[in-house]
Amino acid sequence: MRPILVLYAHPSPDRSEVNRHLAEAAGRTPGVTLLDLYGEYPDYGIDVDREQARLLEHEVIIFLHPLYWYSTPAILKEWQDLVLEHGFAYGTEGTALHGKLFFSALTAGGPELAYRAEGFHHFSIRELLNPLEQTAHLCGMVYLPPFALFSARTALEEGRLDRHIQEWSDLLKALRDDRLDISRAQKLPKLNGELANLIRKE
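^ thats the sequence. predicted structure below, dont judge the formating
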C-alpha cells in the first residue's frame, strides 16, 4: 500500500464550495494523511523538520488547492521554499524524494476552454503548472498531470460536484493500491476524464 499525503491549502475554507469537500473525502480514505496547512500553520511558521519527516513517511504527495493567480495559495509556496531544502529534496545528497509521486488536485474558476492557447488564459492548466512539474523533476519525483475541476464556482448548482468527489476518491484509492497506470497517466493534460481507462480493476 502506498501511503498518501494530501497538503490542503485554502485560506478561506468556510467559503470553499469544492476544495473543502475534497479535503473531507481525502480525510475519510484509509491510507491517506490529510494536512490542512492553514489550520496547522496560521502564522506561516512551518516546522521544516516535521514536514520533511512527513514526506519521508509517504509515497504520494498531493497539493490540494484552488488555482490562485495561475499558481498555488501562498502557504504552499512558503512550504516549498522552506521544506524542499538543498541536501534533502535536491542536490547531490538530496535524494529523499526520489521516486515519490506528485501532482496537484485543483479547482479553477474559469471553464476548461479558457485554458488553451487560443483561450482567455492562453495556456493549458498543465502548462501553467510547469514550475511544479520542474520542481518535481529536480527532486527526482514522478510528476502526474493535475486532477482539475473547471468552472468550480458553478459545479454545485450544475450537479457536477458529486461526480468529481467520487472520481477523487477513486483516484486516491487507485494510487494507494498501485492500480493507476502511471506511464499512461503522465502523458495526459489532466487526470480526470480518463480515470476509467487508467485504473486497473481490483
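Strands lie at 4-8, 32-36, 60-66, 101-107, 142-143, 147-149.
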